[in-house]
Amino acid sequence: MKQAMVNNISVEDDSWRQPGSKSYYWMILAGLAIMLVFCLIVAWWWGSFMAVSFSSEPIADAGNHANFVKPLMHDAGKLLILGSDHIGRNLWLQMADSVSRAFIWTGLIIIFAYVTGALAGILAGFYQGRLTALWRLLNGFLLIFPPLLFAILFLHDINNQSSDVAQAWLLLCAIALPIMAMVLRHVRAWTLMICQHDFIRMAKIRDEKPIYIIFIEIFPNMMWLLLSDLLIRYSHVLVLLVLLGFLGIDLPFGLGLWGQLIGEGRQYLSITPHIIIVPCMVLISVMTGLYLLAGGIRRYHQQHLRKII
Amino acid sequence: MYPLARLATRRFLLLLLGLWAVSMFAFWVLWDAQNITANSLDDFGSAFAGGRPQGYFVTLLSAYFEWWLNFLTGDWGFSYHYQQSVSHIVGTHFLNSLLLFASGALGMIIMTLLVGALCAFYQKSWFDRLMMPMGSLLNKASMLLILVGLALLTTQGNIVSNQQILTDDGFDLGMLALPIISMILFGFGMIIYPIRKNIEQMMQSEYVEMHAMKGLSFADIILKYLLNKILLRIIIIMLRGFAELFSALLLVEIWFNYQGLGALLLQSALVMDKQVLIACLMLVSMMILLCKYLAIMIGYCSNPIKFVKKDDGKAHETSLLRQVWQIKE
What phi-psi label fits residue B38: left (phi over 0), alpha (psi between -120 and 50 degrees) or beta? Predict the structure, then answer.
């Protein structure tokens, strides 16, 4: 045991960092995982060619446990591949609808958060001084609450807003602001690291315009890391939307449906577990794909690109 | 001690500033404007007419300061939804959450310490190769997926009613097992990887290698030389990640229908009971800010990198931890 303890004290094995080792299999696996989810949506569109029921009408005696349609069972002569939910709606249809809405809105939220956060972070890192101190103070306030709590506080009353535009802006701000704060912090740190290099000093000596230095010299060096971070945050925002629906927050534009399926399905867990298993499996599939893709991009950046950060 | 006092004072002022900002946000956003007379925005223009402040703005300010005064003296208002004083409701729910969180935290610390130490000592063994991916998986999976997984694996997938946990004779600790296990798994995923890395780095220090070569057992090295440092690191990581742990606690309370602070916060948000919501918000933000403050202070005091202190014009190195706790190395 003593010998084992002495021998086991070793440096970390970092052979995967050696040039030449293939890291693209991560991307392939990621693509396969995400494809599973997109098949769900695509199948909904060409479902007319299959003997599969895509009716959105609830079956008779909805709510009665005996009338739950389990996966791969028939209802009125048509096959329900994923079965029905607790009130008899086609689960595949519900999932495809909720997933497509969640994907679109998550994309909008992430784009808004990253554009504003990255821009603010680069400016805060490039122009250091009192402005940076102010940014850090505001950032600190936004990060006091976890994103879930922040979203609950802003969105618990969202349906009382008068117009769809107001609801959309409130949804965007409630979820995007904490993400923006985190992105700002990371991008500012990366900008400070990049600005220490000689090529930035040379650009300043050449009297290049700040906009040139920011978008031509600084931004391309953090682009891949930003993309990797964006994919991970995308999965976090997706999970946040599911959580808000699960907690009973009545989100607009049908965004709460995914979480509501999980929340309502847990009451029938011992009878028909597929109602909760299917949404969770879809969520796991998306998260796995996004994490693998982010990992593949990060490894590509570390192995093949000049390491500035 | 001067740099420590400066850091402590600066951070404490930031903590107070954060609390004030949260109170402004809570009061401005959540307070029912109809409680205040003359809530027209036009009154902003006439706020200081005639040399005397008046109107909506002033009424709001005076209500805000009155609320702060009552808050500091313990009068948090009356909840019309629950028909009780807010301090009583929040107090009982807070104690429930404290019990669940404390039990979960104790389990997290023990499990992370044991598993982290074993994985760091027996690197690349089957145990290490099993535990690290599991920790990574638990870290990436949301608390919701952990709860669903536990519910599918156990027979207690259905909602556990409040009456089963909180009986007339007190707590039924058996029913608390699943909520505590959920918290432990979430915390384990959050903490295990950085702790394993820290233990690995500690093991590479010369005095640990010397003791290992002298023939001390794995348990002796951990208990005599590394335990306090590992515990400190675990506590610092938990304090820094308190916000995430609170979100997980909220989900656990909702899933198991456990009447804790997180469940109270959500319920008050859904029924628009603003008195309770503001009180919960203030309490939660105070806890999060205090935990972050403690994490910074403990991390600064226990920093193994010695900081330089000038004395009589000469710089010499001293370790604050060694001075305060006289740790043997």
Answer: left
Residue A154 has pLDDT above 90, yes or no: no
Q: How far apart are CA B288 and CA B241, in angstroms?
A: 9
CA nearest A261: which of A97, A108, A76, A103? A97
The span from the CA of B221 to the CA of A2, in Å, is 12
* Whole-angstrom distance, CA of residue A239 vs CA of residue B140: 11
Q: Determine whether the interchain pair A267/B121 forms a contact, defined as Cβ–Cβ distance below 8 Å.
A: no
Q: Are A146 and A243 in contact (CB under 8 A)?
A: no
Listed as ranges, residues in chain B with pLDDT below 70 are 1-2, 29-58, 155-174, 303-329
Residue A274 buriedness (CB in 10 A; 0-12 / 13-18 / 19+): buried
pLDDT tens profile A17-66: 444 445 566 666 666 666 666 666 655 554 444 444 444 455 444 445 54
How many C-beta atoms surround the C-beta of residue B269 within 10 A? 24
Residue holding tokens 């999932």? A95
Predicted local confidence at residue B215, as pLDDT: 82
* Distance between start and end Cα atoms, chain B: 23
Q: Which residues does residue B85 pair with via DSSP β-bridges, in sequence order?
A: B78
What ipTM does the predicted assembly reach? 0.79
What are the angstrom distances between the C-alpha of B282 and each of A158, B22, B287?
22, 7, 9
pLDDT digit string, tens, across residues B45-59: 444 444 444 555 667
Confidence bin at A109 (pLDDT 50/70/90) = very high
For an interface test with B, the pick among A8, A134, A262 (most B C-beta atoms closer than 10 Å) comes out as A8
What is the bridge-based pairing of β-strands A78-80 and A73-75? antiparallel
* Neighbour count for residue B260 (Cβ, 10 Å): 24
- B246/A243 CB distance under 8 A: no
Find the Cα–Cα–Cα–Cα dihedral B13, B19, B20, B24, rounded to 10°.
Answer: 160
Residue B190 contacts residue B241 (beta carbons within 8 Å)? yes
Which residue bears the tokens 């903490």? B191
Render pLDDT for A263-299 as a digit per residue (tens, 0 to 9). Answer: 888 877 777 777 888 888 888 888 888 887 888 888 7
Is-contact A231 B113, C-beta < 8 A? no
Q: What is the 3-class SS of B171-195, one letter each residue? A: ECHHHHHHHHHHHHHHHHHHHHHHH
Task: Kindly state whether B122 is in contact with chain A, defined as any CB-CB distance less than 8 angstroms.
Answer: yes
With CB atoms and an 8 Å threshold, state whether B142 touches A276. no
Residue A4 has pLDDT above 60, yes or no: no
Please give the Cα distance from A8 to B230 (Å, whole number).
19
User: How close is the nearest chain A Cα to the Cα of B218, in Å?
Assistant: 8
CA–CA distance, A172 with A104 (Å, rounded to integer): 12
Return all residues near B117 (Cβ < 8 A) that are at least 6 apart: B199, B218, B222, B226, B230
